[in-house]
């Protein structure tokens, strides 16, 4: 591990873009066979020990972004531009052989569905041993000892090294996946919706546990989820993605307390609360855009309750809003006056 | 109170698990008593494996109960012997499934499923009125223009639109009660509310009752009049939604409520000793099935299965400790 100085980010993603090559199965209405840009110039940085949440709806590119960072994309998806600096090296230009040195030891990935990610026909211990054998030279006794250690870390009885995945409950399987990711105590753990298959009680105890492990072992986390409220108390930084782009980024508390982008505000208002008065909610009308037919201007404009005419032909950038940044013309110095008039926000066309 | 639309008495469903001679029985639902009124939305909440989907399938007639009774409009469902009667019941109490991506046939246009249902359940309609009725139900679930939507294939619709088609199919049978099994859990957060609002509108406009099955207690609160909480095959608490949420009596309900992430409230940092131990429902012994996770369990809990007992107006819980009127947590009001 080559730590340069403690202030340097552990991971710096710069203008990362991912494209899916589309074949013949294209819509007949002339959308063409141009590559579909699922992740469009996303930048983010993760400090050592930081917890970064990435939220968005299905199809917003959040999982593709994770896979691109971990260099796990497979065709037809490919990185179309940008860089991923990790420990001062650019992962994007590395060969598989070079990556294998870093994988699992320096960064690891926890997949979404433990049910599918664990091999159903071998024991948990055998799967740990596989991972260890692929990335290090441990004796059988060392392998076993490490397996016992990581299972104890996540609060599973080490007796389960001999268990098969079906013998564990959903929450235990998910914790076993996390134990597996921690085999080499990496600096970065990338998690793709690890709690989405769990019920609220198990979900919460897993979140508390991830946070506690992080405090103890000091690894950084990138946590992808579609459930914004889930990370509200756990992440330091929050990225909100929409249609392949980051629409808002900033300290988690700031994004929750004063969401700057209408989409983030809409997402927050889409959750009914279990406390306080029962208020009618509207959610966000419409559906996410079809990335095969890129929109001019702001990609959220068809669903935006605060849309103005100029949104349809000006592509917004990320503008600073307090401690955060938001991709909305409302916050662009040159356009902000259009929203300054206290005109009520118009309702949106479907 | 007028006659309930549907009620169950000691509804029980056991499944055989393991080999033929294992003798293991999984108690999916045990002694469930529930009442559904007209024009009422009742939410059934619980974790995965608690038996809530089994209840829906029992009510829909997919499973036969091991014991107990389902009465629809005062008549036991088991007494409906003729095909015509059973068909009528299934049309009036249809089910909407969780996964809108696998519950529509991808090979047919979306009109196909609705038209088929109409042919089966509403024999009186001719082809023209079937088409008109199809358009009516599609508009009722908020999809316009109906004519155009009906000619599309499922893959041309978004998840939310597909789930609305699921509701349109159910609505076409002129139902009195729709069994909605996790209808929004596969959908994106931003469009879930739209579907819940649609359910509330269908209750008002079409007079349909709903059994809304979910693990998301916040959405249950948003849409339901009454709440039933299930744990390990037992209904452990029931009451008016606001009462149950404001004054949860059962320790499981309290645990469930404390686990709901709420960005508007500060994080309650508790000891969180809960490891999510799965309940034992295979050949269970008497006693409360929550006792291994329960912070307030007493000796009695290990020997006597608590029954659902009224603890307030329309509010009942199956807990020895709550019944003894001992405040179960600090959250409990002093009243």
Description of the molecule:
The complex is a heterodimer of chains A (350) and B (335). In chain A, helix 4 packs across helix 5 and helix 6 (170-181) runs parallel beside helix 7 (200-217). The termini of chain A are far apart. Chain A has an eight-stranded mixed sheet, sandwiched between helices. A four-stranded antiparallel sheet of chain A has the order 2-1-4-5, with helices on one face. Chain A is globular. In chain A, 28% of the residues lie in helices and 21% in strands. Chain A is built from eleven helices and twelve strands. Chain A is an alpha/beta fold and 350 residues long. With 335 residues, chain B is of the alpha/beta class. In chain B, 32% of the residues lie in helices and 21% in strands. Chain B has eleven helices and twelve strands. In chain B, the strands form two sheets. Chain B has an eight-stranded mixed sheet with strand order 6-7-8-3-9-10-12-11, sandwiched between helices. In chain B, helix 3 (110-121) packs parallel to helix 6 (159-171) and helix 4 packs across helix 6. Chains A and B meet through helix 7, helix 8 and helix 10 of A and helix 6, helix 7, helix 8 and helix 10 of B.
């Amino acid at each position: 591990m080559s730590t340069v100085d403690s202030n340097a980010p552990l991971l710096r993603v710069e203008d990362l873009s991912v494209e899916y090559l589309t074949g013949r199965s294209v819509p007949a209405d002339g959308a063409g066979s141009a590559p579909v840009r699922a992740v469009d110039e996303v930048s983010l940085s993760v400090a050592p020990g930081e917890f970064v949440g990435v939220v968005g709806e299905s199809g917003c590119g959040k999982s593709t972004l994770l896979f691109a960072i971990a260099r796990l994309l497979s065709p037809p998806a490919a990185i179309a531009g940008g860089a991923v600096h990790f420990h001062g090296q650019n992962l994007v230009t590395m060969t598989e052989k070079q990556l294998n040195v870093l994988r699992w030891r320096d960064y690891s990935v926890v997949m979404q569905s433990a049910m599918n990610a664990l091999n159903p026909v071998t024991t948990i211990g055998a799967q740990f041993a596989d991972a260890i054998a692929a990335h290090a030279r441990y004796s059988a006794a060392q392998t076993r000892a490490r397996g016992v250690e990581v299972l104890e870390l996540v609060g599973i009885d080490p007796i389960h090294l001999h268990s098969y995945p079906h013998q564990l409950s959903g929450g235990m399987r998910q914790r076993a996946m996390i134990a597996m990711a921690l085999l080499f105590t990496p600096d970065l753990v990338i998690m793709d919706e690890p709690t989405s298959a769990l019920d609220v009680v198990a979900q919460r105890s897993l979140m508390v546990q991830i946070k506690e492990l992080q405090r103890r072992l000091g690894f950084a986390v990138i946590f992808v989820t579609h459930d914004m409220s889930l990370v509200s108390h756990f992440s330091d930084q929050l990225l909100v993605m929409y249609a392949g782009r980051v629409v808002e980024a900033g300290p988690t508390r700031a994004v929750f307390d004063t969401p700057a982008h209408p989409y983030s505000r809409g997402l927050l208002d889409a959750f009914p609360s279990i406390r306080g008065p029962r208020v009618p909610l509207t959610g966000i009308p419409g559906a996410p855009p079809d990335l095969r037919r890129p929109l001019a201007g702001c990609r959220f404009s068809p669903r935006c309750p605060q849309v103005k005419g100029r949104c349809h032909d000006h592509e917004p950038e990320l503008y600073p809003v307090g401690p955060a940044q938001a991709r909305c013309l409302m916050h662009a110095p040159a356009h902000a006056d259009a929203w300054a008039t206290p005109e009520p926000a118009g309702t949106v066309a479907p | 109170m007028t006659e309930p639309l549907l009620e169950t008495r000691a509804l029980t469903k056991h499944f055989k698990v393991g080999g033929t001679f294992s003798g293991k029985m999984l108690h999916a639902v045990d002694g469930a008593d529930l009442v559904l009124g007209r024009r009422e939305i009742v939410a059934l909440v619980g974790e995965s494996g608690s038996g809530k989907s089994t209840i829906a399938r029992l009510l829909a007639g997919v499973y036969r109960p091991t014991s107990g009774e389902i009465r629809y409009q005062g008549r036991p469902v088991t007494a409906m012997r003729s095909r015509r009667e059973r068909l009528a019941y299934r049309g009036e109490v249809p089910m909407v499934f969780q996964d809108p991506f696998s519950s529509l046939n991808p090979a047919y246009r979306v009109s196909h499923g609705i038209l088929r249902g109409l042919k089966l359940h509403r024999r009186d309609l001719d082809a023209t009125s079937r088409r008109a009725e199809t358009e009516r139900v599609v508009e009722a679930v908020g999809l316009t223009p109906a004519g155009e939507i009906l000619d599309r294939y499922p893959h041309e619709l978004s998840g939310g639109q597909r789930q609305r088609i699921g509701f349109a199919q159910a609505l076409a049978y002129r139902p009195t009660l729709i069994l909605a099994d996790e209808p929004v859990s596969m959908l994106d957060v931003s469009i879930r509310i739209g579907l819940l609002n649609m359910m509330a509108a269908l209750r008002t406009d079409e007079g349909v009752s709903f059994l809304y099955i979910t693990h998301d207690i916040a959405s249950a609160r948003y849409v339901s009049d009454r709440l039933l909480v299930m744990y390990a095959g037992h209904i452990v608490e029931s009451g008016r939604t606001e009462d149950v949420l404001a004054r949860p009596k059962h320790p499981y309900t309290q645990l469930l409520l404390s686990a709901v992430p709420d960005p508007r409230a500060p994080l309650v940092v508790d000891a969180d000793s809960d490891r999510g131990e799965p309940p034992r429902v295979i050949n269970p012994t008497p006693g409360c099935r929550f006792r291994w996770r329960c912070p307030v369990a007493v000796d009695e809990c290990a020997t006597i299965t608590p029954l659902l007992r009224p603890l307030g107006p329309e509010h009942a819980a199956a807990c020895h400790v709550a019944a003894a009127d001992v405040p179960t947590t600090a959250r409990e009001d002093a009243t």
